[in-house]
Write a structure and sequence with these properties.
Radius of gyration: 17 Å
Number of helices: 9
Strand content: 15-25%
Structural class: alpha/beta
Number of strands: 7
Order of helices and strands: HHHEHEHEEHEHHHEE
Shape: globular
Bound molecules: S-adenosylmethionine
């Protein structure tokens, strides 16, 4: 097993997500799946409200960053942890008429049903599977993305290895996830993220756990320095991180 790189001494190296009460990988996966299934009906509304619609810009900017991959004729693209599909839809819009084949994968059936309902006649495909054990042969995809889902995996290094397995040589990966902004902005943001957001999320979704788990999971997620170290150790080339909106979110990129 690849050992995690500890390059930020303020954060302990972690294996993966740890929802309350979940210990082994199977119980982490179950807890995460149940959590997202419980909030699925209100997920989109809360996403847009709680992010002041900036989420749409983050997906758009991520898709734009992969224009070259998406516009290559016949490109094969996989969006992991696709939820209700917004990252996949942004990729589809960016691909234009290139004929890119875009697949979204998630292990919450409820989230995929919503993605499917939203996709209408768009040629997107939705598959129910665990991102740590995907039902595809090696070297199938030119681009693999994951928006706000990678942080929930039970084992980050295993997640990176699975992405690498599925990428073709020179294929690219893009992991968009939350970060922790620093300075004054960081202080203000933490008040919002740790107090206001969980209160509104709990009120609107009617479920307590998930919106308390969100800030805890971001706090636990590796720092950009550590995440880049893990990507390099897994075998990615040209690993980079680009902060979005003061580092509230950011895009990790790497090439096989
Ligand atoms: C925060 S949502 C993000 C959804 C979407 N990508 C977006 O940007 O709105 C995280 C999604 O990841 C899915 N997920 C978490 N762990 C997963 C895993 N191991 N395998 C597949 N899906 C997973 C959850 O079911 C959930 O739908």
């Amino acid at each position: 097993m690849v050992q995690p790189t500890i390059s930020d001494p303020t954060k302990p190296a972690v294996l993966g997500a740890a929802p309350e009460g979940a210990g082994d990988p199977a119980s982490v996966a179950r807890a995460v799946r149940e959590m997202f299934t419980s909030i699925a009906p209100r997920y989109d509304l809360l996403n847009h409200v709680l992010s002041f619609n900036v989420d749409r810009w983050w997906w758009w900017k991520t898709a734009r960053g992969f224009s070259a991959d998406l516009r290559r004729p016949g490109a094969r693209v996989l969006d992991l942890c696709c939820g209700t599909g917004d990252m996949a839809f942004a990729l589809h819009r960016r691909a234009g008429n290139s004929g890119a084949r875009i697949l979204g994968v998630d292990f919450s059936h409820a989230m995929l049903r919503l993605a499917n309902a939203k996709s209408q006649r768009k040629p997107l495909h939705w598959i129910e599977a665990d991102a740590l054990c995907l039902p595809f042969p090696n070297q199938q995809f030119d681009l693999i993305t994951a928006a706000f889902g990678f942080r929930n995996l039970a084992n980050y290094d295993a997640g990176l290895r699975e992405i690498l397995r599925l990428l073709r040589p020179n294929g690219e990966c893009g992991i968009l996830d939350f970060g922790e902004p620093r300075g004054l902005m960081g202080k203000l943001y933490r008040i919002y993220f740790k107090r206001v957001l969980p209160a509104i999320g709990t009120l609107v979704s009617g479920v307590r756990g998930p919106y308390a788990y969100l800030p805890a999971s971001v706090e636990r997620f590796p720092s950009p320095e550590e995440m880049l170290g893990r990507m390099r150790q897994a075998g990615f080339r040209e690993a980079s991180w680009t902060p979005y909106t003061f580092g509230i979110a950011g895009l990790y990129r790497g090439k096989k």
